[in-house]
Amino acid sequence: MSEQKIAFYTGPAGGWGALRGVANALLKQDAAVKGAKTLLSANQPDGFDCPGCAWPDRNHHSTFEFCENGAKAVAAEATARRAGPALFARHTVRELARQSDFWLEDQGRLTHPMAYDAASDRYAPIAWDAAFALIARHLNALPDPDEAIFYTSGRTSNEAAFLYQLFVREYGTNNFPDCSNMCHEPSGAAMKPQIGVGKGTVTLDDFTRADAIFIFGQNPGTNHPRMLGELRAAHQRGARIVSFNPLRERGLQRFQDPQSKLEMATLGATPISTHYFQLRVGGDLAAVKGMMKHVLEQEAARGGVLDRAFIAEHTTGFEALAADLRAEPWAVLEAESGLTEQQMRGAGEVYIGAGSAIVCWGMGITQHPHSVATIQMLVNLLLLRGNLGRPGAGACPVRGHSNVQGDRTMGIWEKPPAALLDRLRQVFGFEPPRAPGVDTVEAIRLMLAGRGRVFFALGGNFAAATPDTHETWKALRQCDLTVHVATKLNRSHVVHGRAALILPCLGRTEIDLQAGGAQGVTVEDSMSMVHLSAGINPPASGHLLSEPAIVARLAAATLGGPGGRGSKTPWPWLVEDYGRIRDLIERVFDDFEDFNARVAVPGGFRLRNTASERVWATASGKAGFVPHAVPRDTPSHRARQRVRGTVVFTLLTTRSHDQYNTTIYGMDDRYRGVFGQRRVVFIHPGDIRALGLRDGAWVDLVTVWDDGQERRADRFRLVAYDIPRGNLAAYYPETNPLVPLSATALGAGTPTSKSIPVVVLPHQGAAADGA
């Protein structure tokens, strides 16, 4: 572990630092040779899809189709370290629970199915058949299938996700909380009724044609580094790149392409953002509204600004939006966005000057109370000038996990459409449950109420990813049984039910050998491209099963076991050859016609996107303008009314550069200059002075929400940073305890982890800490 220090980074994103990061990741996992060889197959037509983010693959002309953080994910999976029975024999679960998230994952790959033994407080090996029989007994003993909860991680393949939703619906419930509920749920909730699809409308080719790219609430340098290559190329050909972010993120400023010999030799770098607006946390809706107000005023002043032909033919609701924009005072837009009228007009002028424009957004938009409204305002902006359904233009929600979008396509959704359920009945001969299931936050409430008794997680790290940590852990511990399918040890394995299982599975980089030979799975990226993924490495252990095999064997044991409902589905036969699973996917989903043939083509195929064709699958048959008022009831506003005389900040949670979702690869955040530590809070220097503290002081973060319950996260180091006054940033999952289950996005249920009202207090143990 590196020395704890703050040493601000002034270089570009990427470059030699990224190459050193790749090398260090391989060395730390004792996988220098194996890991380097494995990386050459990442995102290649005959290789595996990176287990990191869902950014699309460009053209496979390069051997190096991976980024620094993708390399960290691959190194972590290809590690020489093993978390086998010997590890669990050495440590009780109580001892493991005292370790950090980094330490737990750093123990290496899980090798054997393990069952919790309460008498010894240890996990002990269990045979696969016995594990499936144990789960089946618990599931079949429940008086109501809705007392079981089936969570899904976004790294699950299409084949595994399809079998999973089929099994669970045959079992009798739609309880499908998944990681979409915690990230991009608002994107689908906003776009589906507005333009008829809940996915992005662009392709990578559109990035080569766009005159302007607007980026909201996203940090591609850490979260989607391969996106920087597209932004670099766009900047070099003269496109305007306009970024809105409270933090000055290195990847949005300058990028040194590790594959550019000239930049690497000369230490040069390409600027990324031509315009950078540091708005206040949660000010995006007001900022976009200001841009649109400018567009409307310029239409009145000079004409020819709006695409009136597109508006007339393809949209509804324009006059209502226009009236709302005219009535909105600039003073309100300035106060709520944190930007000046001149800045918003400047961004609007860039938009007017662009023949084609793309709008991108990430979780900096989706994890707010008004995220759905904000996304609909972003789409309104695109509609004003016809920037949907034509080259170089469109909406681009940038997803996180590598197949989170594919999981939803396969039916992992607690609110399944009737058409899907009808097709399942037709193809498989059973009556699927029709009542909606629970999302992630609702699942936690169900467990807390004692009505969620069995929790099964197909991947992920539920205990670390979810909000309201104290309540979530209490909920999991009340379960009769918790089961986690995983590749590595994580926090969820030590926050368990009365009975608990850890089921180790193959990783994305490993050969999946079934009766029909080596198998490939499919994934869907952020731009609806579906392609094959096939591992190249021998499995980390001979005791590992693939996720499709785990689901199929569990289904057979549960549905065909004592008390089971029976099933006509030939579960064991399906996993002998995953092509059989794809044949069934084709029968259920029309967009997957000729699935096996089309996915065999290098690069795969793109699913139909009706909005890209200007076919609007909405209630009106057209795209809809949707006006929204500027939010005036944000957590900060409400908190100021309650906590008189005390400065209330708005905190956003974020990842470090050594992190992907809840997986901690190391303790450094190179681009933000933080090394050897994670309990830091970024704050404006003026706010440090106003608090009467100093840079580096230790503080506690305390908040009180509408439920009246105080939540706190203690002992964070203040780090002076370029962030708007009144705003803070800190890493998750350390700050997840500050977000109550009641704080969710309107119309989507996503935790509002980017909008947390907090009071900053001197740490109670500050003297002992040397602060």
How are the secondary structure elements laid out?
Blueprint lengths: L4 E2 L6 E2 H14 L3 H8 L28 H10 L4 E2 L1 H6 L2 H5 L3 H5 L3 E2 L3 E4 L4 E4 L2 H14 L6 E5 L5 H14 L13 H11 L8 H4 L4 E5 L3 H4 L3 H10 L3 E5 L9 E3 L4 H6 L3 E2 L3 E3 L6 H19 L5 H7 E2 L1 H10 L2 H8 L3 H13 L3 E5 L1 H4 L4 H14 L9 E4 L6 H6 L8 H11 L11 H9 L5 E5 L3 H4 L3 H9 L3 E6 L12 E6 L7 E3 L2 E3 L1 E4 L4 E5 L13 H13 L11 H4 L3 H11 L6 H5 L5 E2 L16 E2 L10 H8 L6 E6 L4 E2 L2 E2 L9 E2 L4 E4 L1 H6 L7 E7 L5 E11 L6 E5 L24 E7 L3 H4 L2
Parallel strand pairs: 2-10, 3-4, 7-16, 8-9, 8-14, 9-12, 13-24, 14-15, 16-17, 17-18, 25-32, 29-31
Antiparallel strand pairs: 1-28, 5-6, 5-18, 10-11, 19-20, 21-22, 22-23, 25-33, 26-27, 29-32, 30-31, 30-33
Describe the fold and architecture.
The chain is of the alpha/beta class and 771 residues long. The chain has four domains: 5-77, no CATH class; 82-183 and 406-588, Rossmann fold; 185-398, Dimethylsulfoxide Reductase, domain 2 (3-Layer(aba) Sandwich), CATH 3.40.228.10; 635-769, Barwin-like endoglucanases (Beta Barrel). It is built from 32 helices and 33 strands. A six-stranded mixed sheet has the order 6-5-18-17-16-7. Helix 7 crosses helix 26 and helix 23 (440-448) crosses helix 25 (469-477). The chain is globular. 59% of the residues are buried. Mean pLDDT is 91; it is low at 766-771.
